[in-house]
Structure formats: structure tokens, C-alpha cells
Amino acid sequence: MLTLIDELTNWYIRFNRRRLKGENGLEDTTHALNTLFETLFTLVRTLSCFTPFITEHIYQGLRPFFPVDEASLEVGSDLRSLHFLSFPKARDEYFDPVIERQVSRLQAVIELGRTVRERMVVPLKTPLAELVVFHPSQEYLDDVASLLPYVEQELNVRSVVLTSDEERCGVKFRADADYAVLGRKLRKDLARVKKALPGVSSDDVKQYLATGKITVDGVELVEGDLAATRYVELPARVEGGPHYESNTDSDVVVLLDVLKRPELEQEGTAREVVNRVQRLRKKAGLVATDDIDVYFSFAEGLGNELEAIILASGDVIGKTLKRAPRPRREWDGQREVVIEEEQEVGDDKIVLTLVRA
Q1: Do strands 171-176 and 213-216 pair parallel, antiparallel, or not at all (unpaired)?
Q2: Distance in Å from the first CA to the final CA of the chain
Q3: Mean pLDDT value across residues 329-339
């Protein structure tokens, strides 16, 4: 159950924030909200006997959105309380092994990429140029490709390369053994294998994976005797070129270019401005449908660089805010000011003014 809650909050809702707010049109938003509604409705009925009060509170929030034909809910006739309803039944038609496999692989790639960012202390708000995903299976790569916008959005990368080219990614193989187990089989030959194993080539280990047979210093080993591990030898770094860092779960390999580029850092700064505006909207009690113009100003002689970034990033900012912020000097002063507050963006202090459109 905890896994389900994590999947709902940290994956479905997190990934579909924009869909839930209507960015992709009414029909898509309706599908996204209906999915969320049914999931919550099923979840509270499942948890009602364990956490009766919080589930009842959530249920009462869902009640105003029940269909007009309440019988279609198939939960009985008395809807006054969650605790009058029957326990939900499993709906086999909702289970799709292909979708489950695709999402599982998507999650693996994203978690590996997040770990690289954390290890290199690169915040998620900083856009990066490229993510390379390596896997020998074309099915795996196709599964990731089917959900590619989520990878780009969650890891904040401009391009994703999906490849099975081991040489391009520097993918190598090494063999390891549980010598306590192998010793019972090999006895006096164990010392020879232990000494020679570090020198076994990557190609030989790869061949062992394919055939289940390998000869180490004249000793024949079969499938199960060794454990093959995939690792990465990172390409040589060229000044100004990609700076790859890798991560793997012994199945898929990701290489993330963590080199910070000025043009992408400017985009990251623009996203910080969006974040500050969104905070102000929330503080003012505005909802997504409230039409607001945003103006900004700085103390005299300050903020020239940040202003240039804001004006140059109008398209990036406008995708979220619908309208890009404009300098305060362009405001006619005639409309209602909803909220005005000074915010920090990097080393700059900017005054943001939200005005009714």
C-alpha cells in the first residue's frame, strides 16, 4: 500500500501536474482527473478500516464530484459516508503488463539520472544538454522512447539518446565469483581461476553471457559459476565537450552530460523566476484560471543581467505563466494589484508585481 501511495504522489501526480492543470486541452485534462479521482476513491475505500478519519475526510472532498447517476459508482445506495460503502473489487481490465513494464523502465532511468545529479551536486533546476541511455534490448529502448517527454522533463535535459552501441557508451563487462561457493566445485583449481579472473577480457565475459561457457586458465566454467557485471569506461573528456558521468543498476546504463553551459544556465534562471511567480500566486490565493499580468523591477542600477535573461526567455516563461513578465515601467498603473513582493533570484533581488489582467 505504501508503494501505491508513493506511485500516486511521487510519480503520477508529479509527472502529470501540467495535464491536471489543463495544459494539453480539456479532453486530456478530463482523462487525467478522472484517473486521479478513481484512484483516490479506490484508495480511501481500501484504507478505510486502517485510517478511518483521514480517509473519511478525503472521501467527503470527493463526494461533490460524483457522477449525477450515483448508481454508476457500483458501491451501494448510501453515499453519506465512506464507511457505508463496500470494499472495492479488483478490475482486471485495468491491468496492462506492457504499460507496467514501460513505466518500470522509465522509473529506473529517471532514478539513475537523479542519483548522478545528486552525486555531482547539480540541482534539478539546472538544465543539462544530454542524457544517453544504453541497453542491449531494443524493446527496452522502445519502452523508454514511448515515455520520453517524462524523462526530459523530470531530469531537465534537452536531448535523450537511446542506444545499444556498447563502443559509443564505453560499456564493458567483468566477471566476479562467489569463491566460497565456487571453491566447493573447483577445489584445487580455485586458486588458478581466482588469479586469472581479473585478466579475463570484456569480450570473453560478454561471450560467456551469450553461451553460458567460458575457459579461465584452462578451467572450464559454465552458467551460474560466474556473475557478469556491466560497467562503463567513460570517454576521454575534450575541453568544451560533453562531461559524462555514469550510473547503472546492472541492467540499464545512463550517461548524463553534467557540463554546465551558459545558455542552459540562463534557462535555469528563467525557471527560477517562474517559480517565484508561482509562489506569489499561491500566497495570494490565486487559482490556475485567474488571469494575471506580471511586472518586475529592480533597485536603481541593479538587475540588468537578470532583466536581459527574463526578456530573452519569454517563450520558456510564457509556457507556464501564459504571459512573460514585463518591466514595471511598462505598466499603466490602472489595474488592481493583487500582490507585490521582493524575491531573490540567485544574487539578485527582484520586485514582482501581480496585476489583474
Answers
A1: unpaired
A2: 45
A3: 84
Strands of the sheet with 348-356, listed across from one edge: 326-327, 292-297, 348-356, 337-345
Cell matching residue 129: 544538454
- The burial of 32, by beta-carbon neighbours within 10 Å (0-12 exposed, 13-18 middle, 19 or more buried), is given as buried
pLDDT digits (tens, 9 = 90+) for 62-107: 988 887 555 455 545 678 888 888 888 888 898 999 999 999 999 9
- Distances in Å between the alpha carbon of 219 and those of 186, 188, 229? 9, 11, 20
User: What DSSP character marks residue 205?
Assistant: H
Cβ pair 343, 349 in contact under 8 A: yes
Q: Note the pLDDT tens digit of each residue in 19-70.
A: 888 777 888 899 999 999 999 999 999 999 999 999 999 999 998 888 755 5
At 96 the three-state DSSP class reads coil
Q: Which three cell numbers stand for residue 296?
A: 518586475
Whose CA is closest to 269, among 216, 322, 325?
Answer: 325
Q: Are strands 348-356 and 337-345 parallel, antiparallel or unpaired?
A: antiparallel
- d(CA 178, CA 174) in angstroms, rounded, equals 14
**Mean pLDDT, the chain, integer:** 86
Beta bridge partners of 105: none
Bridge partners (DSSP) of residue 248 are: 253
| H/E element, 36 | helix 26-47
Cα gap 171→105, rounded to integer Å: 19
Do the beta carbons of residue 1 and residue 46 sit within 8 Å? yes
pLDDT in tens, 259-298: 888 878 888 888 888 888 888 888 888 887 788 889 988 8
CA distances, 281 to each of 147, 239, 354 (Å)? 31, 43, 8
pTM above 0.70, yes or no: yes
Q: Which candidate, 322, 333, 324, 246, places its Cα nearest to that of 288? A: 322
